[in-house]
Amino acid sequence: SVYGPVKSWRYGRSLGIDPIGPVSICSFNCVYCQLGEIEVKTRDRAIFIPTNQILQDLQSFAPWDVDIITLSGSGEPTQALNLGEIITSVKECTKRAIAVLTNATLLNDPQVRLELAAADKVSAKLDAVSSDRLQRVNRPVAGIDLQSIETGLQQFRQEYSGEFGIQTMILSPWDAATKTEYIRWIKILSPAEIQLNTPTRPKPLTRQLDGRGNHSPEDRPYPVQMFKCLSSSELGAIATQIQQETNIPVRFAPTDGHT
């Protein structure tokens, strides 16, 4: 349930906590997912790994010489029903800042928002600002649509006092309408930071647990799918426009595949 440390372009040296487990479980099945095809596609919450097991697994990584501890792993971490307990217990045990990477699909659940409030940083996915793109890129389970995601994001932003960021994966150059709509969303959500990414990491054709960490394509002893990435100049141009129109800092990924 604990892995790394992972070198993260967003957070530095990050120790990963996976509250989901060896079977990938998520409310999205993103076309670019570094875990491969999601094995269990659901929006339901459950306890997948007991909190005590996570705390026990943490001990072998002591004294936790990392910049941050990040909840992500094998799917959507907010689907762990013991999310709040994990955040609180790990923070107390390690005395390190806790970040949660979420796809934002459960943020319209008041209990999820309450549990996430204990995290120091929350980075929410926003790949799609149109229903068509949501279906093509993120491929959500039934019952999740763009309106529910937008509502959940706004509710969470109003309540959360920690550092709130938006993470966005860009698979191809954006047209003017997409940029305009994305900037409209950003102005409403007013995150502390925007993180732009492009799929530099390969997607395993079958589920592989090591997809959680740092690996280049040549390190993979199994078949993978590679995506055509945007260049640094293309990402930079989008970042510059967003930052100029919103006055919100925008960072974008390097091309070496770090998370």
Write the topology of this structure:
Blueprint: E1 2-8, E2 12-17, E3 25-26, E4 40-41, H1 51-58, E5 68-71, H2 83-94, E6 98-102, H3 110-116, E7 121-125, H4 131-138, H5 146-159, E8 163-169, H6 176-189, E9 193-197, E10 203-204, E11 224-225, H7 232-246, E12 250-252
Any descriptors?
about 260 residues; alpha/beta; 8-stranded mixed sheet; two-stranded parallel sheet
Notes on the structure:
The chain is of the alpha/beta class and 259 residues long. Helix content is 30%, strand content 19%. It contains 7 helices and 12 strands. The protein has helices spanning 51-58, 83-94, 110-116, 131-138, 146-159, 176-189, 232-246, and strands at residues 2-8, 12-17, 25-26, 40-41, 68-71, 98-102, 121-125, 163-169, 193-197, 203-204, 224-225, 250-252. The strands form 3 sheets. An 8-stranded mixed sheet has the order 1-2-5-6-7-8-9-12. It has a two-stranded parallel ribbon with strand order 3-4. A two-stranded antiparallel ribbon has the order 10-11. Helix 1 packs parallel to helix 2 and helix 6 crosses helix 7 (232-246). The longest helix is centred in the C-terminal third of the chain and has 15 residues, at 232-246. The mean pLDDT is 91.
Brief sketch in words of this structure:
The protein is an alpha/beta fold and 259 residues long. 30% of the residues lie in helices and 19% in strands.
How far is the first residue's CA from the last residue's CA?
18 Å
Number of strands: 12
Quaternary state of this entry equals: single chain
The spatial strand order of the largest sheet comes to: 1-2-5-6-7-8-9-12
Largest sheet: 8 strands, mixed
In DSSP terms (H or I, runs of 4 or more residues), the helix count works out at 7
Sequence stretches where pLDDT stays below 50 over 5 or more residues: none
Strand content: 15-25%
Structural class: alpha/beta
The amount of helix comes to: 25-40%
What is the N-to-C order of secondary-structure elements (H for helix, E for strand)? EEEEHEHEHEHHEHEEEHE
Form type = globular
The residue-averaged pLDDT reads 91
* Radius of gyration, in angstroms, nearest whole number: 17 Å
